[in-house]
Amino acid sequence: MSWKNQLLRKKSVAQMLEQVDKNESSLKKSLGAFDLTMLGIGAIMGTGIFVLTGVAAALHAGPALVLSFVIAALACVFAALCYAEFASTVPVSGSAYTYSYAAFGEFVAWMIGWDLILEYGVACAAVASGWSGYAQGLLAGFNIHLPNALTSAFDASKGTIIDLPAVLIIIIITALLMMGTRESASLNTIMVLIKIAVVALFLVVGVMYVKPENWSPFMPFGFAGVATGAATVFFAFIGFDAVSSAAEEVRNPQRDMPIGIISSLLVCTILYIAVSLTLTGIVPYKLLNVKNPVAFALTYVNQDWVAGFISLGAIVGITTVLLVMMYGQARMFFAMSRDGLLPELFSHVHPRTQVPQKSTLVVAVLVATFGGLLPLSSLAQLTNIGTLFAFILVSIGLVVLRRTHPQLPRAFRVPFVPLVPLLAVLFCGYLVFNLPTLTKLGFLGWLSVGAIVYFLYGRKHSRLAKKDDSSQT
């Protein structure tokens, strides 16, 4: 077989669905639409609403932060519709990786899978570090302080060696994920309801202290600042795509996947807009460059008791983000391993819990290493560009699959194709354009490493490659 044919060999939807039915590599179907919606909100609403709102307002958008959220949300809504159709048509683990395998072929699928490994992995490590900061702040309120060496990633100048709280939360989340998907989803639902209640409390109390004069000037940094703010707060929406990783564990994916993806994104968008308006109405935007802007706003108006609840809600909120992102990362390894592109151990499913435990353990080790030992401030920016790249490919892939496989049953259909996918590509491309050049170069470097790994390992071990070889002998 020629190199071109090897790179473009596709996995049919029928092959994917047949693979799901095999007992040795199938996952337990235990989730419904409500579970998926809670998973989506759990993944989306965390660091973005509790941290990024202040930084983006103070440095980039001012009170026009609300417009930044609208632009970022539009990019996500258009992409979410494409994800919803794919998830209802191809209800298989792997998210954008699986969809690309059907639409573009093996090499593009591998590259998007490699991209998502970066997205989920760096995001998990960064979120674990953020959780550590909030947890240490809460402990400090009780006059409990960890030894300096255990408070942050390795930094000889500061005397820090490892971020112990980050490692501990990863161990706890891993233990929970290995118990079973149903158990993980149930706890996630409880934590999501808590953080929604906390955000609602902020809005109810905060609206009484809103001063309209704080919204003037509304756009102090111009529209360029709004665009940069949108590229920054896009991180706040990352997570709904992780819902599509659960497709194989949903009882009725054709109906429930679109509901879970779209409803979770809409709920979070409404809450983000409400919080950003209230936040910039309470506090002059120049003062919001802090790590805990939502709690800070309430302290600013002498509502310290509510600020305490907000800090606790932030810890719960960030915990759910870590839970869902580690879940998505493990399913990504599982899907790629089942196709032979990664070692077989990643696709081993525990016979009792029907969870890919080895994949989950490997993810935990990697995330704990990065989150505990390495400062991630520069790497975290790569999460945004990796996600935008995935959104663009999924949107294009939907148009391709519509033309190449028009006969496929689609429980949910994106309206106004190809207009909606094109809008997703344009909005996501615009946000990529507004990211720093160094981030783009770093992303290209990561993809280059991925290409090398594919040619050295994936191309030879691919299940499709083995089928082709057997058919030629």
SSE inventory with pairings:
Blueprint: H1 3-8, H2 13-20, H3 33-44, H4 47-61, H5 65-89, H6 96-103, H7 106-141, H8 164-179, H9 181-206, H10 222-233, H11 240-243, H12 253-282, H13 293-300, H14 304-338, H15 357-373, H16 381-404, H17 419-433, H18 437-461, H19 463-472
InterPro entries: AA/rel_permease1
Membrane topology: Multi-pass membrane protein
Protein name: Amino acid permease
- Main sheet attributes: strand count, strand direction, barrel closure: none
Integer-rounded radius of gyration:
22 Å
Mean pLDDT figure: 84
User: What is the overall shape?
Assistant: globular
The rounded distance between the terminal residues' Cα atoms is: 12 Å
| Low-pLDDT ranges | none
Helical content (DSSP H or I, runs of 4+): over 70%
* Structural class assignment: mainly alpha
Outline of the structure:
It is a multi-pass membrane protein. By secondary structure, this protein is an all-alpha fold.
Descriptive notes:
This protein is mainly α and 473 residues long. It has helices spanning 3-8, 13-20, 33-44, 47-61, 65-89, 96-103, 106-141, 164-179, 181-206, 222-233, 240-243, 253-282, 293-300, 304-338, 357-373, 381-404, 419-433, 437-461, 463-472. Helix 13 packs antiparallel against helix 14. The longest helix has 36 residues, at 106-141. The model has no long low-confidence stretch (mean pLDDT 84).
Notable traits:
single chain, 473 residues, mainly alpha, 0% strand, globular, membrane, transport, transmembrane
